[in-house]
Design brief:
This protein has 3 helices and 8 strands. A hairpin with a 5-residue loop joins strand 7 and strand 8. The protein is α+β, with helices and mostly antiparallel strands and 151 residues long. It has one domain: 2,3-Dihydroxybiphenyl 1,2-Dioxygenase, domain 1 (Roll). The chain has an 8-stranded mixed beta barrel. The longest helix is centred in the N-terminal third of the chain and has 12 residues. It is globular, with a radius of gyration of 15 Å. It holds the Pfam family Glyoxalase_4.
Length: 151
């Protein structure tokens, strides 16, 4: 993981639409299409399906707003910042490095193609926001999503 691979700050909010409107009114943000997906994830309690709803800002530095999912890691953080997201060439090895540095994997998601490769993972340490590692292989898809942002 390298500082220059930081590409977004994730904020979990109770009302996605209201938060998008607020950031637009206050700072002029535009937003991508809102994506809703039932995400298959692996947690310490086992495999679960999480109903995710989220959007990215159209401008850099990017914000990712995620709708609260009660009973999951996706609840608002006391600091406001839920996670910071980094591109990763190999999520597995970057996650192992974070874990060897004292962080704990909270949740991860595998590529549905059966390769066994991680698409993304969240790690949390004793202080600060979570770190999200996102496979660089997802970058073209996410860039297409960013292109949906409009005023």
């Amino acid at each position: 993981m390298k500082a220059e691979d930081l590409f977004h700050t994730g904020i979990v909010v109770d009302d996605l639409g209201a938060a998008m409107e607020w950031f637009t009114a206050v700072a002029g943000y535009t937003w991508t299409d809102v994506v809703s997906v039932d995400q298959q994830v692996v947690t310490s309690a086992g495999d679960i399906t999480v109903p995710m709803k989220m959007a990215y800002s159209g401008a850099e530095p990017r914000l990712e707003l995620v709708q609260t999912v009660m009973g999951s890691v996706w609840t608002p953080a006391d600091s406001g910042v839920h996670h910071i997201g980094y591109w990763s060439d190999v999520v597995e090895s970057d996650l192992a490095a974070l874990e060897s540095g004292g962080m704990t994997c909270e949740v991860k998601s595998y590529n549905p193609d059966g390769s066994g490769a991680l698409l993304w993972a969240y790690a949390r340490g004793p202080a600060g926001p979570r770190v999200e590692l996102v496979s660089r292989n997802m970058k073209p898809f996410i860039e297409q999503w960013w292109a949906t942002a409009r005023p």
